[in-house]
Design brief:
4-stranded parallel β-sheet; 191 residues; alpha/beta; 7 helices
Length: 191
């Protein structure tokens, strides 16, 4: 795979897809809710390689919720690893471009930069998508698969802490969304 440092990297939500159709996107990773149709916006894109995953943006089991599983994370990493030399612009999207897609970008960056420190990788993610709040379940699975010994998850906590320090009311919103673990990771990082 071509160096991701030399590749255009984009994270966005569904409502932003049409803005990227003329930007030379060569690879698209789509993460959609179960049963969600393929976005119509892709008909305006040049030919590209695409992988689509269907699971909910959740970190805890709940009735009717399909969680991201280890096999999903492995397949996302395989897509990143197998992109090939024709990768010049990778676009990853989910519904809002905040959680599942940023977790996927963080995983792919970590895989592509095996000797880089986690804080540097997280900083790169925040350059790409400042509003990132990566799905901690996906990050935790990637942390294990990539042998980061919990360091990647701990750095994701820094992202949560940054958002919570600016918008403390976000803690209650995330708790209502059954994302207590992420709030606690963020609060633990506040010094």
């Amino acid at each position: 795979m071509q160096s991701l440092a030399l590749t255009a990297l984009t994270v966005c939500g569904l409502d932003e897809l049409d803005r990227h159709s003329g930007r030379g996107v060569t690879h698209i990773l789509s993460i959609l809710d179960p049963g969600w149709p393929e976005p119509a916006a892709f008909s305006a894109f040049d030919p590209h390689r695409r992988a689509t995953f269907h699971f909910h943006d959740a970190i805890e089991p709940a009735p009717g919720v399909i969680l991201p599983e280890k096999r999903d994370v492995e397949a996302i990493l395989a897509f990143g690893r197998d992109a090939g030399d024709d990768l010049s612009h990778l676009l990853i999207h989910c519904h809002m471009g905040i959680s599942r897609s940023t977790a996927a970008m963080l995983m792919i960056l970590t895989q592509a930069l095996p000797h880089e420190r986690e804080d540097v990788i997280v900083d790169r993610l925040l350059e790409i998508r400042p509003q990132s709040w990566p799905n901690s379940r996906m990050v935790g699975l990637a942390d294990e698969i990539l042998g980061r010994d919990g360091r990647l998850s701990a750095e994701a906590g820094r992202i949560y802490a940054g958002h919570l320090s600016i918008r403390p009311e976000l803690a209650e919103t995330m708790r209502r969304l059954n994302r207590e673990k992420e709030v606690e990771l963020g609060l633990a990082r506040k010094d």
